[in-house]
């Protein structure tokens, strides 16, 4: 009888131990809170829908950042789990050994060159002109300089004036800038508010002309905190699936979310709906986007190595489940 009692007690201990381990594993696969940060920009619209619809549950903190410096500071402090970033900034952070891994690329073209009365028909038409570009040293500037150089437009052929992209928009509206480079949705606002402004060039089309048919301009993606991904791989997959679903909804029916976008991102609904006709959003995993990302980073590296952190990132940059 005593032997039976001992055996029974041992069995209870084993069962309790297994239960405790299972409880620990379940806890490890589900973070207490997920912190997402993003700018007021096109790739953020699916995130707004995700949060609004509780697609990741109600343990999500959603932060809209004002500039890249704010975002990278939060990353350095370990205060963000997922961050929307320009792909080159993600590369730069990774090459500086920041705790980030690229999980997806989602924005494949939002930059446009606009001109008054559509006077710019080709790159040669820019010779002797003043071109207004937002954010000197940022990706719009470096992509512009790359496209200019690839089309044999030298520094002596053109004058480039800089300011912020919102300033470029206001100058165009005021008639002080006749040729501007703007991202969506500012390009749409320019078309709606500035007199006789027309789209002269779609940068994603110009990119493909240079880099070959099917080549895509991998501008923006989402990074995950690497330590978070290692600890909560299931949460990363849940995020990827939710973002893909939300993005597809935004792309196929922007009108259905435009009121929400106006409320949360302060982009007028009519502007958002119109801008989506020129905003190339597509969910592509980092692994599947790698070839286009490397072409993009190599191009930026030709103009300014500092833009990507001095070198192409290694395999560890691309998240693999």
Give the total of domains: 2
CATH fold naming of the largest domain: D-Maltodextrin-Binding Protein, domain 2
CATH architecture of the largest domain: 3-Layer(aba) Sandwich
Main beta-sheet strand count, sense and barrel state: 6 strands, mixed
* Helical amount: 40-55%
Number of helices: 13
**What number is the mean pLDDT?**
92
What pattern of helices and strands is seen along the backbone? Answer: HEHEHEHEEEHEHEHEHEHHHHEH
The CATH homologous superfamily of the largest domain is named Periplasmic binding protein-like II
Number of β-strand runs: 11
Structural class: alpha/beta
Distance between the termini: 52 Å
Strand content: 15-25%
Q: What would you note in describing this structure?
A:
By secondary structure, the protein is α/β, with parallel strands linked by helices. The protein has two domains: 34-107 and 218-313, D-Maltodextrin-Binding Protein, domain 2, CATH 3.40.190; 111-211, D-Maltodextrin-Binding Protein, domain 2, CATH 3.40.190.10. The protein is built from 13 helices and eleven strands. It has a six-stranded mixed beta sheet with strand order 2-1-3-10-4-11, sandwiched between helices. A five-stranded mixed beta sheet has the order 7-6-8-5-9, with helices on both faces. Helix 5 (139-150) links the parallel strand 6 (130-134) and strand 7.
């Amino acid at each position: 009888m005593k032997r039976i009692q001992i055996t029974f007690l041992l069995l209870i201990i084993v069962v309790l131990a297994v239960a405790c381990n299972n409880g620990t594993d379940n806890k490890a696969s589900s973070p207490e809170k997920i912190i997402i940060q993003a700018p007021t920009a096109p790739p953020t619209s699916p995130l707004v829908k995700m949060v609004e619809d509780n697609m990741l549950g109600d343990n999500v903190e959603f932060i809209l950042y004002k500039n890249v410096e704010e975002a990278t500071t939060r990353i350095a402090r370990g205060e963000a789990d997922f961050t929307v970033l320009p792909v080159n900034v993600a590369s730069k952070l990774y090459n500086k050994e920041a705790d980030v891994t690229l999980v997806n690329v989602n924005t494949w073209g939002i930059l446009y060159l606009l001109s008054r009365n559509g006077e710019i028909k080709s790159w040669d038409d820019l010779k002797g002109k003043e071109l207004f570009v937002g954010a000197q040293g940022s990706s719009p500037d470096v992509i512009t300089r790359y496209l200019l150089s690839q089309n044999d437009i030298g520094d002596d052929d053109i004058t480039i004036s800089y300011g912020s992209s919102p300033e470029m928009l206001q100058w165009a509206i005021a008639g002080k800038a006749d040729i501007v480079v703007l991202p969506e949705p500012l390009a749409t606002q320019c078309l709606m508010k500035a007199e006789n402004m027309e789209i002269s060039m779609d940068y994603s089309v110009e990119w493909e002309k240079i880099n070959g048919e099917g080549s895509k301009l991998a501008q923006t993606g989402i990074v995950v905190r690497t330590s978070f991904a290692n600890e909560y791989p299931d949460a990363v997959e849940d995020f990827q699936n939710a973002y893909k679903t939300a993005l597809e909804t935004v792309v196929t029916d922007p009108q259905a979310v435009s009121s929400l976008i106006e409320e949360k991102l302060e982009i007028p609904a009519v502007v958002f709906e119109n801008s989506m006709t020129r905003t190339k959003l597509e969910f592509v995993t980092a692994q599947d986007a790698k070839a286009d990302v490397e072409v993009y980073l190599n191009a930026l590296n030709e103009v300014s190595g500092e833009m990507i952190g001095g070198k192409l990132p290694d395999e560890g940059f691309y998240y693999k489940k």
